[in-house]
Amino acid sequence: PGPIKYINCLLTAAMYFPGLEGVVVKETKICHIDLENSKIYYRGYDLEELAQYSTFEEVAYLLWFGKLPAGAELERFKAELMMYRKPPEHVDEAVKIAPKNAEPIDVLRTAVSAMALGEDLSDRSPEAELVRGLKITAAMPYIVASFDRLRRGSQPLHPGEAKSHAEYFLWALRGERPGEREVRALDVMLIIYAEHSMNNSAFTAVTVASTLSDMYAAITAAIASLKGPLHGGANVDAAKMLEEIGDAKRVESWVDQQLSRGRRIPGFGHRLYKKGPDPRLRVLRKLARDLASEKGDFKWVELAERLEEYVTAHLSQKGIYPNTDLYAAVIFKYLG
Ligand code: ACO
Q1: I need a labelling partner for 20 at 20 to 30 A (CA). Which of 120, 203, 216, 300 fits?
Q2: What is the pTM of this model?
Q3: Is the complex ipTM higher than 0.85?
């Protein structure tokens, strides 16, 4: 009847939260984002201090086990990561038969999905799931680097002796031992990207896991979410943007043209950071500058700084500030 339908409509309208804005779906002890003070904490530790004083392996351990590892725990954890770097043979084969023009993130998604094949998934204890998480994390550098080498006409490489996750990835990509500063830069990037509360990909993973599907399925779905240009795909678009602009002098005309066409500027805007830039930028800007000095090439960092200045001047009144992906693109360009 009319009046009940009307009340239902009102209730539905009152309960509609576009984009889940303001909806709390879960409590977590893993990450705290303090918007008021522009700070991020992993398990109570200030992210900027972790980025300065710790390694990716220590941070991964902290996020998974709730405490920083003591010496022997860290060594054991690193040894386990090293043990699982090379994924099972059929995953290697899946990467080898991928068309060379595939997107690397699509190959990664397919490979992580393939990791479930043939594994006995019946043990669903937290310990067994942690081992699966460890296997996925450990294998990702090999998968991405192998595909990149194959598409460039060379063979996959497994530099097993590389000490850290970051060193392993750069070495497996390039085929030669990377410099210490480059390894540290990638290590910091891995720390910075390790956790960010209930973002789209984490939400997707939790949604899949909540049906008691499996770890590989949840992470495959999370990678699918991450790929989107409004989320993790933005750092690819930001890198393309830097190349397209090519020179800090062209920033203004390029941005004006994009905005006049109603397009978004990659590496800007964030669901949470509407009153100022992403707090992680304090680390990333410095890292980008340090790498530029190391390489003696300031082109990309100056371009990003000019973009930050110009876009912020034009769009901050709408709550648009730079996000991590702008400077991540700069750092990844310097890392080749
Ligand atoms: N460039 C220009 N305008 C923008 C941008 C941008 N990058 N981002 C948002 N806007 C504008 C929108 O067009 C909209 O304008 P309008 O009110 O005139 O229509 C307004 O700002 C609000 O936009 P929403 O989409 O409602 O903002 P929301 O907070 O939901 O979106 C998002 C956040 C998706 C990140 C968005 O800012 C965006 O698309 N950014 C570009 C892609 C990007 O860098 N993504 C990475 C995010 S960080 C991460 O996921 C790792």
Answers
A1: 216
A2: 0.93
A3: yes
